[in-house]
């Protein structure tokens, strides 16, 4: 996304841009196929690192927590009971109940973790809503802040091969670490 495209984005939405900048990450919590990384980069380039990060962070935390609360509310429905009976889900819930919020915190710090899945499984566990909200606030700030920092000047990525290589390397390393942690925490066979 070029600087001109970002300026057109801001001009197109005008004062509603702040609402759109909040709503896109908010909606991503419900529709995980949407690209949270793109929304954060657009926000940061449109409104600056602080405001852009703040809007994306508030949107994604609000959306994730609402998903958590909705699934927590419907834990006792027939459909949710069916999901809970799956062996992999039972292992994961048991693992979270035993290990607490630290594995969730670590997973949520990485932008490539399927946060919708984590929200749903956390809602099925015995984690208190307040503790989960605190985990979301801190971990999502780390994740959004990192993505915002990496994408804050997207135009310089194309003019500076060294910066592009650095950002690409950081993204690849974060992705690899996130996948390893996800495999460890989400697919632990003996937990």
UniProtKB/TrEMBL annotation:
It is a multi-pass membrane protein. Its main location: membrane. Residues 35-150 form the VTT domain. It is found in: Cell membrane. It comes from the Bacteria. InterPro entries: TMEM64, VTT_dom. The chain crosses the membrane at residues 12-41, 47-71, 101-125, 131-150, 162-178. Keywords: Cell membrane, Membrane, Transmembrane, Transmembrane helix. GO terms for cellular component: plasma membrane. It holds the Pfam family VTT_dom. Belongs to the TVP38/TMEM64 family. This is TVP38/TMEM64 family membrane protein.
């Amino acid at each position: 996304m070029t600087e001109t495209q970002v300026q057109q984005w801001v001009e197109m939405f005008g004062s509603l841009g702040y609402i759109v900048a909040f709503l896109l990450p908010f909606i991503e919590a419900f529709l995980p196929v949407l690209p949270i990384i793109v929304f954060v980069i657009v926000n940061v380039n449109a409104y600056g690192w602080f405001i852009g990060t703040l809007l994306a962070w508030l949107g994604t935390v609000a959306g994730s927590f609402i998903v958590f609360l909705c699934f927590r509310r419907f834990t006792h429905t027939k459909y949710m009971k069916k999901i809970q009976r799956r062996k992999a889900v039972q292992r994961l819930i048991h693992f979270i109940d035993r290990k607490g919020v630290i594995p969730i915190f670590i997973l949520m710090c990485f932008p490539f973790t399927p946060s919708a899945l984590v929200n749903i499984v956390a809602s099925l566990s015995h984690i208190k809503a307040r503790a989960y909200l605190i985990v979301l606030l801190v971990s999502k700030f780390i994740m959004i802040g990192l993505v915002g920092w990496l994408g804050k000047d997207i135009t310089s990525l194309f003019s500076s091969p060294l910066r592009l290589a650095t950002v690409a390397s950081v993204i690849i390393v974060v992705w690899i670490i996130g996948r390893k942690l996800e495999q460890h925490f989400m697919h632990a066979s003996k937990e």
